[in-house]
Amino acid sequence: MRRASLASVCLAAAGAAFAIGPSDREKPPTTTQVMESAKPEDWRRPDPANTLYMELSGGRVIIELAPRFAPQHVTNIKQLVAEKFFDGLGVVRVQDNFVAQWGDADKTRPTESALRKLPDENAFAFSKGLPFVKLPDVDGYARETGWIDGFPVGVERKPSGQAWMTHCYGVVGVGREDWPDTGSGAELYVVIGQAPRQLDRNIVTVGRVLRGIELLSSLPRGTGGGLGMYEKPEQRAPIKSIRLAVDVPDAERTAIEVLRTDTPLFARYVESRRNRRDSWYIVPAGHTEVCSINIPVRDVPAR
Amino acid sequence: MRRASLASVCLAAAGAAFAIGPSDREKPPTTTQVMESAKPEDWRRPDPANTLYMELSGGRVIIELAPRFAPQHVTNIKQLVAEKFFDGLGVVRVQDNFVAQWGDADKTRPTESALRKLPDENAFAFSKGLPFVKLPDVDGYARETGWIDGFPVGVERKPSGQAWMTHCYGVVGVGREDWPDTGSGAELYVVIGQAPRQLDRNIVTVGRVLRGIELLSSLPRGTGGGLGMYEKPEQRAPIKSIRLAVDVPDAERTAIEVLRTDTPLFARYVESRRNRRDSWYIVPAGHTEVCSINIPVRDVPAR
User: Fold this and answer.
1) pLDDT score of A28 more than 60
2) What's the whole-model pTM score?
3) Cα angle: B264, vertex B140, A274; to 5 degrees
4) B261: which of B97, B107, B109, B155 is 20 to 30 A away, CA to CA?
5) Quick one: three-class SS letters along B200-222?
6) Chain A residues 16-55 within an 8 A CB cutoff of chain B
7) Can you list the alpha helix ranges (DSSP code H) found in chain A?
8) pLDDT by residue (tens digit) across B5-27?
């Protein structure tokens, strides 16, 4: 039997280095116990200037944008949103165990922003100053994995010196044609299945769904082209609107908090997921993956 | 940039050993090219004596049972099915990015088969004679991974000498309470999200959905208990019936074939997934995982 190793999670954030993990002498905490010990400062509120609200008939999907990862694409998506580009378009594709995709599939809105040619932002330069929180577990796709700004990342310090968002469940990317610079953000997709890590560094990622992904993942699967395309326009789930949270009146915003990834508490949370201590488990896995760590999101607590 | 390694896939099936992979001099085939080269003998027809048809209002879910993995559980599930135990019950739980679960959640049918105590069949003895097809890619959860009888497996030759089904998308397992021997098969679940590999060797797996998983993965998510339970019985998707294919008249069976996993063709298929050669891809991943390989299923071709 593969023994659970009580590997500590190493954090290297803001220049400081921690090494946190339960010693063999203590009884390690369960996930519930870790989360109960979280303090207000272990949570963060996503920046409303980088948060999208996509309004579907079933409710609101909240997406956090990642400007550090793909600055020009994020800027262009904000421009499209400011122009109300997505309003009245729909979810055009739902492929089981892969992605849901929305936007202007029929190219009915050939606006300047929709047609803009952008550089290939599939990855960005990694530098030591980045707030990289490393997950020590081995990963077959990337030399290192972890989180930057709360987003899951792969890192290769040498030779490329690159970092990129890993295609985990809920990650949002920019649909494109065969050529890397053919995606403007007028079509977006979200991962709704087993992490398609083969897409890493092949397509531009711009953010992550924080809440409401079930409104997309539970849509009927399309049957077109072996790609989950809806074959009839009336099958598409209509998008009422996409807005930047900062442009929505305070009273209509959703007040949520996301667990920070650059804290000792998060390191304990990861350890509790690597080795489940709940009474249900017989054999702790002793391993986890960047795409198996769901980052908790909650309503802002009442004061 | 992480270079794609043209790692060959090693097959060790039925005593024979192959080493297959494109040489650096050839242009490696795309997945489409590999599949076009498949011969009739690269496909197999699932045994109707080990195939379940679950009839939902939306259609048929086809599940292949894995008697080698959990013989007593599979036998008991067949017994439950023979007694029409599941007919009129429903899907009781759909938790986003985790599982859909069905069966007698309310314990309204305390039959002998439903209450049967079975041994803990979370894993089984690995021996060299098993038709194990090894995936050479590193896996963080298991010493080795690959396929046995077409099902995804983890293997640990030493010290435990065990093999077990890995919790990939579509894998079906036996719901249980806190104790390992509390699952009879009266409640079953299927993975509908990122492979929850932490469940490996913690819960009994009995098979895999071959077709129709979208009928389960696209159901509305439940909101109960943080576990995706449907809070009202009327939310449950009704199960018209579950039958063994062999008990269904020929004319009502679904004639499908599954790609064999113990062939040179399958090794080429895996290689084409490890390093995508389609023109869309910029950077081949050079890596794959047992849960990222979807095993093709098709209608039996007309003669």
Assistant:
1) yes
2) 0.91
3) 150
4) B97
5) CCCCCEEEEEEECCHHHHCCCCC
6) none
7) 31-36, 71-82, 112-115, 214-217, 264-274
8) 223 333 333 333 333 344 444 67
